[in-house]
Every structure is written in structure tokens, then in C-alpha cells.
């Protein structure tokens, strides 16, 4: 069964940090572009970051302007995981974070910050930033 599962969300104070994980069954994550999206209550899904496949030694990454310098996307290929390290969190970062996979982009080294690019989605992990 092809499935993505996110974990690591929770309640954190402003200025705090969280690390989200995206795990997969039925996929070898290193072979596909992966992205993280956030959906805040009543708002559209927003692209946060993406990472290209591990086909080459230099991994391509992209970030939304709102998270540059605070969030870092990375892979642990041995564990078949993709992480989103989130630092200096603010209440505006609150939402449900989903990871997504572009299956058509097998071994594609780039990625896109567009939900239309990704066909497989996890159920999400909630992040609440509040004092």
C-alpha cells in the first residue's frame, strides 16, 4: 500500500522548534521529489518547502519566502524519511503540515512549490504555535 505518514507535530511556544518527519510505505523516498505544505484553518494549502530526489550528490531544495532561514528540509535515506526542521516558530506557522510526493518525478532532481505537482499526500500532523 502506498502511504505517507507525518509525525512530530504538537504545541510549541513562539520561538520554539519542532522537527517533522515524513515516513513512507510502498515508496523509496530518496527517489522522488518531496514537499511539505501547511494548511491553516480556513485557508488554502500553502507550500512550505520541497526537496529533489537524491539522484545527484547536491540535493536541490526550495523554500517559501516566509520560512527561509528558519526551516530546513532534509532526508535520511537510510531510514526512508524526510524531515522538516522548524526553528523560531511563530503563531503564523500554525496549521496542519502535510508531506507530499511526486510519483511521476521518479529520480527527478528538482522540485516545485506547487500542490498540483504532487499526487500522493499524507494525512498531516498538526502544529500549534501559541504561548
Largest sheet entry: 7 strands, mixed
List unreliable stretches of 5+ residues.
Answer: none
Mean pLDDT: 95
Radius of gyration over all CA atoms, rounded: 14 Å
Number of strands: 11
Helix content: under 10%
The coarse overall form would be globular
Structural class: mainly beta
Number of helices: 0
| N-to-C CA distance | 39 Å
Taken as a percent bin, the fraction of beta residues is 35-45%
- The H-and-E topology, N to C, reads as EEEEEEEEEEE
Key attributes of the depicted protein:
single chain; 131 residues; mainly beta; seven-stranded mixed β-sheet; four-stranded antiparallel β-sheet; 11 strands; 0% helix; globular
Q: What report would you give on this structure?
A:
The structure is a single chain. With 131 residues, the protein is mostly beta strands. Helix content is 0%, strand content 44%. It has no helices and 11 strands. The radius of gyration is 14 Å and the shape is globular.
Would you spell out the secondary-structure blueprint of this structure?
Blueprint: E1 3-7, E2 10-12, E3 18-25, E4 34-39, E5 45-51, E6 61-63, E7 71-76, E8 81-86, E9 95-101, E10 120-121, E11 125-129
Parallel strand pairs: 2-11
Antiparallel strand pairs: 1-3, 3-8, 4-5, 4-9, 5-6, 7-8, 9-10, 9-11
Short description:
It contains no helices and 11 strands. The protein is globular.
